[in-house]
Amino acid sequence: MKVRLVVQKFGGSSVANSERIKRVAQRVVETKRAGANVVVVVSALGDTTDELLELAGQISHSPPERELDMLMATGEQVSVALLAMAIHELGEDAVSFTGAQVGILTDATHTKAKIVDINTQRIVRELERRRIVIVAGFQGVNLNQDITTLGRGGSDLTAVAMAQALKADVCEIFTDVEGIYTADPRLVPQARKLSAISYDEMLEMASLGAQVMQARSIFVAKRFDIPIHVRSSFTHAEGTMITKSVKAMEDIVVSGVTLQKDEAKVTVRDVPDKPGMAAEIFRELAGKGVNVDMIVQNVSREGSTDLSFTVVKHDLPPTLRITRSSAHRIGAGEVTTDEGVAKLSIVGIGMRSHSGIAAKMFEAMARKRINIEMISTSEIKISVIIRRQHAERAMRVIHQAFGLGKRGAH
Ligand code: ADP
Ligand code: ASP
Ligand code: MG
Q: How far, in Å, CA of 87 to CA of 90, rounded?
């Protein structure tokens, strides 16, 4: 009989200290002793990646991205080695690898590289020797042999790509909550664990602020139809399956509410109301790699109009520089910014077949006197820009309005 192959990924909080690393080792050994082959992907300990970035920031305001990758990748190298030691202590054979060692080949984009290939030979050989294989998450190597990283939360992507390359039976993502919830359980205590969610919904939720899974990892999982089980590294409770959508999922109109707090709004005043003006502004931004999110153009008055859009706060300084110069060129007025905004979204594939969802969302907010500044929708999501100071309250209001909480919780 074919031996089951399981990919297990443990996030930073699951390996935050030596006690937790020992607990993870136990969990891995349990799976191995139950008869499966195990490939483990691990993140850096606790907040290591943030701490390394902070350290880099003390040295330079704009460190070369190649060196940032070199630095950040050290975090995961520490955790794989420690986990291998902990597994040895329990009497099983384990071997740890960096991304480069197991041939995780990426493109050349430092700090957010894409995986292009995984050479599984070495891993397969080690598994055949009945060893537990431990792979550093979040990192790879490009054709130049330079170390790259896969974007924040990138260990999720390493795990999914491993599961795909090795044709694993399941990809388990162990984290510090019991699965995917209707909202971040830290912000909405009434949030309920979902037993299953579709790739499309998870992709939207991840892109709209639910950091529990890296968005790109879901994109890849969907493409290759890799089922993911998100579950707790602290309990044995069943978590959430992320899979292809099934009929029952479509009956649920709204599956989750997400919040993105790091948004900023830019407004260009008195843009001449003639063709090509918006193109001019957004072409420049796109060319410089700035991702523009929501866009609103006001009704024009006397030949000019105001144009507002949002970007992630981190991109605000270059956005402002580029927009000011475009505005000057096209003869627009002043460019102002607003860093006090957040984006609240609802997501659900049931929206495809139900109407009145936007109205229900806006009414719930109106009742609580929460002002909506911008709106954008897609087939399976509705997002609004609101004041950041009201954001968490608004999230709870919307969560309740759609009856997403635990039964009896409200
Ligand atoms: P890890 O270190 O395991 O990768 P992350 O911090 O990246 O963990 O992701 C887990 C966190 O994601 C949880 O602690 C939770 O606060 C947050 N989160 C945000 N939205 C959700 C959601 N809808 N369901 C579950 N967790 C969520
Ligand atoms: N350590 C990396 C990060 O913090 C990757 C990960 O945890 O998935 O983003
Ligand atoms: Mg994560």
A: 5
